[in-house]
Every structure is written in C-alpha cells, then in structure tokens.
Amino acid sequence: MNSKLTQKIAFSFLFLCALITIAPVLLIVVIIVVNGISAISWDFLTTSPTNGMRSGGIFPAIVGTFYLAAGATVISLPLGVMGGIYLSEYSKDNFFTRILKLGIVNLAGVPSIVYGLFGLSLFVIYLKLGASLVSGCLTLAIMALPAIITATDAALSSVPQSFREVSLSLGATKWQTIRHAVLPHALPGIITGTVLSNARITGETAPILFTVAAFYLPHLPGSVLDQVMALPYHLYVISTQIPGISKSTTYGTALVLIAFTLSLNLFGIIIRTHLRRQKKW
User: Fold this and answer.
1) 47 in any annotated domain
2) Across-strand partners of 56?
3) What is the pLDDT of residue 279?
4) 20 partner at 20 to 30 Å CA-CA among 168, 222, 243, 272?
5) CA-CA distance, 121 to 113, in Å (whole number)?
6) In whole numbers, what is the pLDDT of the chain averaged over residues?
7) What's the pTM?
8) What's the CA gap between 227 and 223, in Å, rounded?
9) 102 — alpha (psi -120 to 50), left (phi > 0) or beta?
10) Residue 46 falls inside a structural domain
C-alpha cells in the first residue's frame, strides 16, 4: 500500500470521526431551533413570566444569567491570571508545584453539584450571605478558576524564553518583563480559557440551584444579596415542574440559552483573533 493511499484512508477516517462527533450536536441544535423559533419574540425576551410561568417572557432569567456570568468572570479572571502567572513565572519545578498543578487540573473535572454544595456550605450558611447573587457569583467563580489558571499557565509557557531574556538584559525587573514582554503575547490563550470557563458556568444548574436561583421572581434584583432567576434553572423548572406549558416556550428558552452562550463565545473569539493578529512571532 503506497503512502498516498494510506494518507487518504487516514484522512477519510479522521473526517468520519469528526462527522460522527459533530452530527449529534448539530442535530440537537436543529431540533431546538425548529421547535423554539416560534416562541422568540420581543415580548418573550423583554417581559416577565405570567400565568404561573406558562406565558409571558423570560427577561428576569436573561438578566440574572448575565449578572451571574459577569460577576463570576470579574472575580475569577484576576485571581486565575495571577495564579497562572505564579505557577508559570515564579514557582519552582518541585514536588509541591507538580502536586498543585495536578490538583488544579483535577478540580476542573469535579462535578458541578459538588461546587454547589461547597457554595451552600461556605457562602450561604457559614458566611451567612444567604441564597443571593453574591453567593452564586462566588461559587461559579471558584468553578471557573481551574480552567483559567491552567489556560494562563499554558499561554505564558508558550511565549518564547528569548522575550524574557532580552527584557531582563535591558534592565527590566521580573515583573516588568512579565507585564510588558510576556503577558501581552499570552492574552489570546488566556481569553480562550476564560471563554471556555464562561461557556461552562453559564449553562450550569446545580451550583446556582443551591446558592442563588429563584423558582419564580418576576422582578430584577435590587442588590447583590437578592436572589435571581437564571436561564438554566428556569429551563429545568418549566420542563419538569410546570404542567401544561407549551413545547415552544420550553424550546424557546433553550434556544435563548444557547444563543446567550454562543454570543459570549463569539465575543471572546473576536477579541482573541484581534490580539493574535497583533503578534509578531
């Protein structure tokens, strides 16, 4: 068998594997769009639920999801980046550091309900913050940290060592070298990690179920100590707890959640692409 035939067989096999992987996802999206597009309207997106959530809109859930995603990112991004900088630039390669990195990677795979129980125990009960927006944001931020730390560490490690050597040889301090010669080139990778973590926490139900989500709250939160509605939990409620609700409403809510997540990802991809074009290496 010649090399060209072998290459074609390998490419065909890889294409088939990719198709098998992507096809179910596309099928799910098509089903949601077909069944939910009829429910999408201006009133559906800008009004509160009515008639026991059988009619009306999902505006409080959209706003609550945005607050949770934004709050978790504001908390987790600085901490995650600083943690990644420490692991990549300051820590020594020893047994403790390797165990620490292994623990961070393992934390990324912990089931979300465990984070929810942790947030309930620490923020809701022990710190007496109650089921509130701040408890939910802190819980989701902790959940997002492992992905951001790992992405930051990998992105900083990918920057050529020569960048650091040249900066240090010109008299810059270590922090000045990291700030001006390393970190700007690692931003695309950091943004990628942030986008991936956002995509995960935006669609999570278990953590917010214990810490922030309200079953029915037709008004917007007045402070960070108030509960909020959120799209993932709202979708769960109307799918399992509300009898007689139309199928289009359920699928329409799922469609909005997917669109919300994809919009965040698209925003991150645009920023990442813009930063990558500015690279000189």
Assistant:
1) no
2) 49
3) 65
4) 272
5) 12
6) 88
7) 0.89
8) 9
9) alpha
10) no
Q: Which residues contact 215 (CB under 8 A, 6 or more apart)?
A: 237, 241
pLDDT digits (tens, 9 = 90+) for 185-203: 888 888 888 887 888 888 8
Tokens 């509605």: give the residue.
229
Q: Rounded CA gap, 219 and 52, in Å? A: 14
Average confidence (pLDDT) over 240-260? 89
- Alpha-helix runs per DSSP H in 37-111: 42-46, 59-85, 95-107
Q: Is 89 exposed, middle or buried (0-12, 13-18, 19+ CB in 10 A)?
A: middle
Looking at the domain assignment, is residue 182 inside a domain? yes
Six-digit token pair at 148? 């951001």
Per the listing, tokens 């465990």 go with: 114
| Phi/psi at 217 (5° precision) | -145, 90
Integer Cα distance of 213 and 65 in angstroms: 10
Q: Which residue has the higher pLDDT, 197 or 84?
A: 84
Contact 188, 126 (CB under 8 A): no
Structure confidence at residue 221 as a pLDDT band (50, 70, 90): confident
Two structure tokens written together for 133: 């927006």
Please name the amino acid found at residue 151: A
The band of 140, judged by pLDDT with boundaries at 50, 70 and 90, is very high
- Has residue 35 been placed in a domain? no
Q: Is 49 helix (H, G, I), strand (E, B) or coil?
A: strand
**Phi, psi dihedrals of residue 210, rounded to the nearest 5°:** -90, -20
| CATH classification at residue 142 | 1.10.3720.10
How far apart CA 35 and CA 20 sit, in angstroms, is: 23
Q: How far apart are CA 143 and CA 165, in angstroms?
A: 35
- Provide the number of structural domains found in the chain: 1
Cβ atoms of 44 and 252 within 8 Å: the answer is: yes
Cα(95)–Cα(90) distance, rounded to whole angstroms? 15
> Of 108, 40, 5, which is closest to residue 249 (Cα–Cα)?
40
